[in-house]
Amino acid sequence: MQGIWLTEKQNENVAIQYRVTKVLHEETTPFQELKIVDTTAFGRILVLDGAFQTTVKDEFVYHEMISLVALNSHPNPKRVLVVGGGDGGAIREIVKHPSVEKATLVEIDGRVIELCKQYLPEISVALNSHPKVEVLVEDGIKHIAEKENYYDVVVVDSTDPVGPAVGLFAADFYRAIHRALTKDGIFVAQTESPYFNQDLIKRVFDDVKGIFPITKLFLAYIPTYPSGMWSFTLGSKVYDPEQVDLGKIPHLDTRYYTPEIHRACFVLPRFVQELVK
User: Fold this and answer.
1) Of 157, 172, 184, 199, which one is the catalytic site residue?
2) First-to-last CA distance in the chain?
3) CB 260 within 8 A of CB 246
4) Is the pLDDT of residue 159 over 90?
5) What is the pTM of this model?
6) Which pLDDT value is given to residue 166?
7) Domains of the chain, first to last
8) Where are the beta strands (DSSP E) in 115-180?
9) Eight-state DSSP code of residue 239
10) Which of 54, 171, 197, 233 has its C-alpha lying 20 to 30 A from 203's C-alpha?
11) Which of the four pLDDT bands, split at 50, 70 and 90, describes residue 163?
């Protein structure tokens, strides 16, 4: 914290600052430094280890895109897992889908869940006794390793690839996800900024492509995140997300995602195409 400004250092040459009106909560959990602050521009923000995770103003973009693109690429997603995502935003979007019977959240840091329920209720709303939702406070890597042919969709809603999230960006983890998925399962992970994290995107895409027969990168635009352009990597055993019949996508209460966005998000600028050739 620097006076009335909160700073996220992206690298040695770039930092992003937000004017803070109030620090609502601050603590060091067993896993990370956690802050929840109120800001002038984006309202309440969850900050983990100095990195902005979600804001009440633009969170809907990230949470709709990390959830609904994969869900609507599968014809009948019944069992869905979110690894990470303790703020509850991805779960909130998943339970909207009419085919989903059970949505399991596995978050290693229980304090994230507890504090998001307290300070970010509009994001965490589905974590409060929703009939479709199961919340487990445990290691997502271990949970995945213990499952086989179980989940239709796995969403890896991780923090940046540092600290407790490092293992969520590893090829061994993607292989374990492949085993945990049903025979026609799909998984998706957030894979950072095409401007600032090109090496990470290349590595993850190559790892996933070596495991899943269909691998696609797609984009969304989230002002809070460094550069505003954010990438997601999707691995599918059977279904090509670009071949979805848009007329069969269920009508959901969304603010960013639409059937047309579903198709358009896979249209990549040339410099991003070059990252995943």
Assistant:
1) 157
2) 40
3) yes
4) no
5) 0.95
6) 64
7) 5-55 (2.30.140.10), 59-275 (3.40.50.150)
8) 133-137, 151-157
9) -
10) 54
11) low
